[in-house]
Give the backbone structure.
Amino acid sequence: MSTTEERLRERVGAAGFESSRFRDNVRFDVPPESLQAALAFLKGECGFDLLAELTAADLLDYPDARNRFRVLYVLVNTATGERINVRTHVDDPEPTLPSAVPLWKGANWMEREVYDMFGIRFAGHPNLKRILMPDEFTAFPLRKDYPLRGRGERHNFPVITRAEP
Amino acid sequence: MAVDIPDNIFLTTLDAAANWARSSSLWPMPFATACCGIELMATASSRYDIARFGAEVMRFSPRQCDLLIVAGRVVMKMLPVLQRIWLQMPEPKWCVSMGACACTGGVFDTYAVVLGVDRFIPVDIYVPGCPPRPEQLLASIIDLQNAIKKHGTLTGKEFAERRSAEGPAPLSVDELRRSRDFLVAQARERSSEAPH
């Protein structure tokens, strides 16, 4: 565990790199500029060949958050069973990150879901469009400033009655 | 003056004959989106046999069905599909809204789930439950059969009188308020950006 951390810290540089752990949950915070290098290093050199999860969190109402969105990559080393979380942050006007699709093909739909729910764009994604909501939906539902019950989009359809002429 | 009719002739009306035929052979279109679909399949299987009521022929083409069973929650992405399937069914057609989610949205009061399909398509029978027991679904089919026998006509003119949707108004006061607040906030933002 500390070997991976040391190697990653050396590779990425100490600026903006933090690591913490809680029980068996190990997390590394990397700045978004070094994200692509960090992921490529972890996949190529450290053997983390499975991208298990790619999600985001909106830290809008957190009291001590420095940036709005936190994007999380959970990588698993299928040979040793080691599991690490790599976190990065993006901010509000035009949140963009480099796409992980060249590294892991499974990131394709995961990045589409993050785009659909949070509005974070991924540069270099082959097909970045909505995957869960309808294509003409205009808002990003999992942002904290979007109400749970929506803004009336769910009932904005024509009504069919019995008597059709 | 009573005419002696042999035993193999009985007198009826065209309406009654048509009603008997239609109610005894309701071919369902299973629009199963979620968990209620499993209960629908269970009702169709051997223990709770829906075939006893003439409804075992679950054609998956709406052109060949006359009973649409909406089983499960319907999301806003699926609703136009549901409306298209309803329009593709030939008259006379009936609709059973099975389960809490199809009737009122169930526990899912979120941005994606339509709170009851009766806001957008006409529903004849509502079956509550989460999921309803197969016996409840069979009871609803029996109720529908009785309703058809009582009120049906050969030409289907009882459908022509229903000119308004039977469910609640599509947009509720809350939703209108939320969408209005959002549009007002957006307009305010735009007007504050305009001089820049």
About this structure: The domain at 2-155 of chain A is CATH 3.30.460.80 (Beta Polymerase; domain 2). The two ends of chain A are 71 Å apart (CA to CA). Residues 104 and 134 of chain A are 26 Å apart (CA to CA).
